[in-house]
Amino acid sequence: MGSKDAKKEEAFDAEAARSLVNDLRGRFASGKTKSCEWRVSQLKAMLKFTNEHEKDIIDALRSDLSKPMVESFITEIAMLKASCEFTLKGLKRWMMPEKVKTSITTFPSSAEIVPEPLGVVLVISAWNYPFLLALDPVIGAIAAGNAVVLKPSEIAPATSSLLAKLVGEYMDSSAVKVVEGAIPETSALLEQKWDKIFYTGNGKVGRIVLAAAARFLTPVALELGGKCPVFVDSDVNVKVMARRVIAGKWGLNNGQACVSADHIITTKDFAPKLIDALKVELEKFYGNDPLKSEDLSRIVNSNHFARLAKLLDDDKVSGKIVLGGQIESKDLKIAPTILLDVPEDSLIMNEEIFGPLLPVITVDRLEDSFRSYNLKEKPLAAYLFTNKKKLKEEFVRNVSAGGLLINDIGLHLANPHLPFGGVGESGMGSYHGKFSFDTFSHKKPVLYRSFGGDASARYPPYAPWKLKLLKALLDGSIFGIIRALLGW
Amino acid sequence: MASEDGKEVFDAEAARLLLKDLRANFATGKTRSYEWRVSQLKSLLKLATDHEEDIVHALRSDLSKPTLETVVYEIALFKSSCEFILKKLKQWMMPEKVKNSIITFPSSSEIVPEPLGVVLVISAWNYPFLLSLDPVIGAIAAGNAVVLKPSEVAPATSTLLAKLLGEYMDNLAVKVVEGAIPETSALLEHKWDKIFYTGNTKVGRIVLTAAAKHLTPVALELGGKCPVIVDSNINLKVATNRIIAGKWGLNNGQACIAADHIITTKDFAPKLIDTLKVGLEKFFGNDPLMSEDLSCIVNSNHFSRLTKLLDEDRVSGKIVHGGQRNKINLRISPTILLDVPEDSLIMKEEIFGPLLPIITVENLEDSFNIINSREKPLAAYLFTNNKTLVEKFARNVTAGGLLINDIALHLTNPHLPFGGVGESGMGSYHGRFSFDTFTHKKAVLYRPFIGDVTARYPPYTPEKQGLLRALLSGNIFNIILALFRWLKS
Lengths: 488, 489
Fold this sequence. Notes:
The structure holds two protein chains of two kinds. Chain A contains 17 helices and 18 strands. By secondary structure, chain A is an alpha/beta fold. In chain A, the strands form four sheets. In chain A, strands 10-13-14-9-8-15-16 form a seven-stranded mixed beta sheet, with helices on both faces. Chain A is globular and about 85 Å long. The model of chain A has no long low-confidence stretch (mean pLDDT about 95). Chain B is built from 17 helices and 18 strands. In chain B, helix 9 links the parallel strand 8 and strand 9.
């Protein structure tokens, strides 16, 4: 298992992974994870450790990301608890077979769809919401009755250790396991056959996961990212809009979130007003020396820090800064930075920013930009701020993304009745609420027939009258059936 | 495209240009309109009706498929699928309003179905008409532009499909690319918004691997060794008829959901075999190699594959009925084998032909574990009147789908998702599931500017934290207390 053990230098290699999966398959085959009681007990255990160790979780997130306590509490802890509770409430209902209609072709019969677990599943998590994004998919896996292995991100090591400890102490270790590690351990896991893999992260690794899964015909869910655009119209409540944009950018792990605002698109006329409003609110939120604000996460590590600094240093870009730009490499801090009209082909406009830099791009007409956006890679989310009904309609009709949100940022993932997931480059599959249960389930159709009502027309030797009757049956036309039966 | 007279080769460049055209066409928004989708579906219906004879002819040429099997299991099934979708399409295209959560209050939420874009359907040879066009119906219903690559192993049907779709459908958005490995590889080099593949696991892996490079979602309809568990407590005559129909009546066993093998008790096996023999003679006469009501084996590759299964040393002695073959006509007679070894080739790979092994066990329930220990098949069947056994089966046996007291019929119910799990595939279709499989369910949340909770925003004071905690706890008393404290601060 994880090489935390100080006594031995156990490497988690392919052999260890194989043995782990075998154990879990044995466990799953025993049927234990299928019982409602087991699933409920595990979800309750998760709720328990989240409540009892709130402080430890907050500390770990502060260590890994300098994440402000309020963010940790709301966006990670409270969200996870809400997810757990929603699942506990719905679980019994979701587990029940769903009766469906039958068709004349199988008359008489009854039909239902029976949800069953896929078996042994792998959840690979991300570093930016290392608590939530590790456990939220695990909730789905357990709710659906699977045995599960969680591989937390090594880039958030304190949270990874804490997860291993808490899951180990509170949950059923024979069916729910944590494997810590980096590339070698993840590769070892990916060499095994899983019944499903759920990956949250970036497109590059997403492709590696998909290719590894292809060898075993393993279905995969990918929660990736993208350049989530924010279209801002002039017909808005400027103050509220500015606050929500800030909350949806720097308030989300300082821009390091898959659904955070990547860049803004607005009209040439409105841009000055927008930028001013942002400046005013930014100062209210983070003071006039944001590098010192306790309410902003830091950049996660020096790699990402260097990546972001490089985006800013680009010749064609550095001159476009209208606010911020200050960096403090020792503490891995970058101040909220706004840029105006950077070139379309600059690096900052061609990769997901995932940081506190906010380009503002101006256009003549907002509607025109909707259409041109569809020629780009589909992002995980797209946002529009406006009061205009027609603009909203055009946006919803024309802009494709994982999900859309009007007049706010990021919040849509808090509604468990909405599927959360990407499309195209931003991912495949979805989760949250019942969608989490579904993503780890096989919906098995079952058709029940009796021996009565056997249509001899089905059987050879095939005669013309049989053909006519069967055709009529499939046509569903009563008249046709009667005619065929009467031999016309 | 692969042309008969010219030297045009459909290579990666041709595929790239094809996709470029289709993307441009999709971007115009034409395929998204309800009218376009309906017009295309109606054209498909029309071509199936107008050209029934041609289709029957092509299937006879490719597979010697009996007319009734073609008319009923390919054409009629296809038409009824089309009609079901036409009836429901408007409903499915509408956004679905969903509940909201207190956290996003005030808000309204909906799920908006939208097409994925440009999709690729790769079809199979055994039901070459149905398995080509049924997924295409789903792709069109969902508003996509689509390329169909029919199987080259059924060449007459492939040519006919290219011709008919060329004549009846909107060629700017619905295309057929004929060909074999080179053409398929050319298509797979590029980025599609979805790939729908029907066929075998080996090629399924190739498709998945190709799709991984572009993060393309894939649906795979594969196969497996669909087991038939037969209890002694049954209506023997009806059960036997249905087993015969579900094996040799389905393209002579060459169907992904055909009965692969039977598992029954040692005691019951002799009776079952006798009844099967009687039924077989009634259906196909006493010289089944001459029966017009049986498909032949599709080609010499598969013929050799099947005869090899029969000729294996420990297997050839287990034949209790049939075993005759005609290499020239590619015919193998309905063959039953009894208790072949578990590790023989015929019990290790999907048979996909007219050979039916019967495996006996002491206790029928043991068969559930046997099935669960193998790769998950596309379907599993149980014949019994015993309600308890039925419940245990439905609860414990995993497969793409289950059917009690019949074979294959579950795929004719459009309210049931049809698809595999594990080695038998991923994703599903039929009815609404066809529409869904080619659709992106886009979540949309609407918020107004009012009702802004300023406690969300930094600087994060203790009072704000208290309020947010209370709000998220949902406890009214806490909320009021916290609100009061925060307002005071």
